[in-house]
Amino acid sequence: MNSFGFEIQKDNTIEYDKNDLSLAAFVLRHEPSLYNCIQCGSCSGTCPASAISSYQFRKMQLLMRRGETKHLREDVAHCMLCGKCILVCPRGVNTRNVIRQIRIALNMN
Amino acid sequence: MRALKKEVVIIGGGPAGLEAADSLNKLGHAVTILEKEGKPGGKLSNWHKLFPDNVSADGILKQMVHKISGDIQLITNVKITKISREGTKHSVWFNEGKCIQAEAVLVAVGFDLFNASLKEEYGYGIYDNVITSAELESMFTGQKSLATVTGKTPERIAFIHCVGSRDEKVGFRHCSSMCCVTGVKQAIEIKKRLPAAEVMMFYMDLRMHGRFYEDLYLEAQEKHHIQFIRGRLSESSENPDGSLLLKADDTLAGSPIKVKADLMVLLLGFVPTDFHRKMGEEFGVEIGSDGFFSPCDAHLDTNSVKTNGIFVAGACTGAKSLEYTLADARSASLKIHEFLLQTTSANILN
User: Among B27, B164, B239, B269, which has the minimal tally of Cβ within 10 Å of its Cβ?
Assistant: First the structure.
């Protein structure tokens, strides 16, 4: 194979119509308080797992709701279920149950 | 006109009460203002300059207080104990047994500022260099110096938006709508006084909804290089040197952020007063889910409540700028005037 010195890069567009949104639908059905999120980042700002890894609850759940689930399994594995995120959420989202429902959906429990 | 002269009691001698008193007086009514503090002016008397045009709050207040004359009586240091009604007469009881009677009562009690110590993770009342937006104003007016608690000139100042607003955890879901622009106004004022200081705003959404507010936002960026970081403060802690460590999610950058600041200013939300609850419980004035008074009609009649002869004006029906508070007070005055004319003609017919 010839090497041309370049490669085709995968673009980072969210293909919303092609993505599978069934996992997000499952989680939102079991924890509808997630609909109330306003992306303030209180959860990920206070998260002890976010301080030591690339995991962020805010970003993770947003990507999930767009059907971007590629890193979801490793993301939710970082959560220690400490619940600090629940304490600081100004919208009353039950963040810990969101993690729990994702783990159930991914057969991680 | 004089023949129609009626007694009106206004509860609250802040901007709404003062403006309504002037309007009602010009419409020919005798007005008594009952003010809980020792002087009129309400929150306006603690403010330095007003957004968006940097007009002196004291100058505006002086013009308003100047209008208290003639048939306007001001009683200060009032503690209201009871309001009762017999026929069309209202009796307002205050200061151990004193009573004043009126045909109409205008409630213009304004608002309270959110008690910042309730948000313990922000450290107000725990860490010395965490102050409120109201305390910063008193630094501007010269009552306190613009410095850290040890007297050092702050090199970095962080403003925290939505403290006591948009927060289910403290029981206030509503947007106080005036803190965004207050914060930007105060940030600009700091940069004017301390050009070398770095100023950061931690916000969820910037709601610059009033006329020229957006100009102020642009000025903050363009002229003063104020940094806007989209993320709500998660928690703060104190460094050994008394400075603060702020932790938030810099949501647009997509990473958690840690920032040191010498001074942290909490932009306090507007919350209902104890009097709101009292009026709701004892006099049946309807209270909304935010705890403020709910007028009869949010569009067509913003100054009447279901109880006949009781009216509301200003920020006691939800957060308002001074501009809208004064407009609402004038609107209430007309509503009261119409009501008093009706009761007079009803009495003549009877």
Answer: B239
Q: State pLDDT tens for residues B223-256.
A: 999 999 999 999 999 999 999 999 999 999 999 9
Tell me the whole-structure pTM to 2 decimals: 0.93
What sign results for the dihedral spanned by CA atoms B321, B327, B329, B331? negative
Residues of B with CB under 8 A from a CB of A: 121, 162, 166-169, 204-205, 230-235, 247-251, 254-257
CB contact under 8 A, A88 and B254: no
In this prediction the ipTM stands at: 0.87
CB contact under 8 A, A45 and B204: no
Average pLDDT, chain B: 95
Residues in chain A within 8 Å Cβ distance of B231: 40-41, 45
Domain A20-105 in CATH: superfamily?
Alpha-helical ferredoxin (1.10.1060.10)
